[in-house]
Amino acid sequence: MSHTQGSTDAPQHAKMNQFAVAGNCLQIGGQSLPDLARAVGKTPFYAYDRQVMNDRVKTLRDALPPGVHLHYAVKANPMPEVVNHLAAMTDGLDVASANELRLALATGIAPGSISFAGPGKSAEDLDAAVASGVIINMESAGEMQRIAALAESTGIRPRVAIRVNPDFELKSAGMKMGSGPKPFGVDAEQVPAMLEAMSSLPLEFMGFHIFSGSQNLRPQAIIESQTKTFELAFRLSQSAPSPVRWLNIGGGLGVPYFPGEQHLDLSPIASNLAGLARKAAQQLPGVEIVLELGRYLTAEAGIYVCEVVDKKVSRGETFLVTNGGLHHHLAASGNFGQVIRKNYPLCLGNRVSGDTLELVNVVGPLCTPLDILGSRVSLPVAEVGDLVVVFQSGAYGLTASPVNFLGHPHPGEILV
Ligand SMILES: *Cc1c(COP(=O)(O)O)cnc(C)c1O
Question: Ligand 1: does its nearest atom lie under 6 Å from the Cβ of 250?
């Protein structure tokens, strides 16, 4: 396939071979992309392929040591059909708002398999979490007191875990969430005092949630972080009011988005984790280990599709103007946490290869120079009506985008 090939010595995108190509068209959920676009009834749209998610879950299950539970972090893609599908495939869900909690409960999974994290949980969030019996990942001592007050007034004994801000950092994570001063969790050094205070409160202590970062593509860094996570949990367990029954080690597994990035090699991570799980079985007998993944489960299963509405040349550069852009897919435009803008992998979904390639800029309809989907991308010669596909779009896509900006129509969304 010839998506986004620049000059030969420039770094290339990893191969996007999760989708077949037939008749020069990308195949999604067994359908040719132009047919799928007709079925959706409009462009732009997001499409998520359940078979790609199934394959990903199977790969993880085959690699991970038995006993490590796999959770899905709903915020990566909260489309109800996707949440339902992954609830059935995984061992639990992680939510970060009362709305996500309702989505998770509506799947019918046991409340004990749902955990609720997030700094600044509102009174309504905590009410809903306590009433439903999910595990609450407490982000501060103040939040613990608010949950204890709810326990007194409702007579319910809430299940709680402490979210720990670790004293180490996940190296080269795309988004760092641990160590240093952080709004997330309780500093590791403050946890023993919080555990001490907990022993006189009507709370059911479950364990710890230690999440140190996201979008990591370096196995060695992930191994180091997971090893330190278990060491920290073993250390903190000595101050716990009751045995640690639940240890959520976060996620952090990355997917390749940009030129030069490679698919993660799971095998060294899995074998290190097997050793850690054996240690945990000795040091924390009966503990349930949870790996919570968002993007690793959904990102590669999703594409964003928009249509070329105009093609023009400006001072020597060719522009494909599409009906999709930043308002639907902030991350692909480079405005969701990127310092230097890089291209997501793109292709023309109805014209995957071509004898002649041309260098184009793929832009959206918004009146802002930020509305870029591809900068100087080499694609087969495109025509108005062609379907531009942005790969790796199944996580942090639609719900992480400012859909009302400029008032264009919202995109479609389909699970196939
Ligand atoms: C966002 C988040 C995740 C998922 O991160 P991914 O990079 O999508 O895997 C997991 N746990 C918590 C607490 C999160 O906030």
Answer: yes
Q: What is the mean pLDDT of residues 325-345?
A: 95
What is the distance between the terminal CA atoms of the chain, rounded to a whole angstrom?
23
pTM flag (> 0.90): yes
The CB of 397 under 6 Å from ligand 1? The reply is no
Ligand 1 contact via 294 beta carbon (within 6 Å):
yes
Handedness of CA 242, 245, 249, 251 (dihedral sign): negative
For position 180, what pLDDT does the model report? Answer: 83
Is the CB of 94 within 6 Å of ligand 1? yes
The domain 110-293 having CATH identifier 1.20.1070.10: the answer here is: no
CA of 82 to the centre of ligand 1 (A): 16
**All structural domains of the chain with their residue ranges:** 21-48+303-415, 110-293
**How far is ligand 1, taken at its centre, from the CA of residue 73, in Å?**
6
Ligand 1 closest atom vs CA 248: 11
CA of 366: how far to CAs of 306, 336, 339, 400, in Å? 14, 17, 21, 17
Nearest to 331 by CA among 302, 365, 293, 292: 302
Find out whether 350 and 34 touch, Cβ atoms under 8 Å: yes
Average pLDDT, the chain: 95
| Protein residue closest via CA to atom 6 of ligand 1 | 294
Cα–Cα distance, 153 to 175 (Å, whole number): 38
CATH superfamily of domain region 21-48+303-415 = Lyase, Ornithine Decarboxylase; Chain A, domain 1 (2.40.37.10)
Task: Please report which confidence band the pLDDT of residue 177 belongs to, taking 50, 70 and 90 as the band edges.
Answer: low
Q: Whose CA is nearest to atom 11 of ligand 1?
A: 250
- The response to whether residue 163 sits with its C-beta less than 6 Å from ligand 1 reads no
Tens-place pLDDT, residues 197-240: 999 999 999 999 998 788 999 999 999 999 999 999 999 999 99
Can you tell me which atom of ligand 1 is nearest the CA of 75? 1
Confidence of residue 4 (pLDDT cuts 50, 70, 90): very low
Backbone angles phi and psi of 205, in degrees to 5: -75, 125
If one residue of 69, 94, 214, 396 were mutated to test the ligand 1 pocket, choosing by the most ligand atoms within 8 A of its CB, it would be 214
| 373-397 pLDDT tens trace | 999 999 999 999 999 999 999 999 9
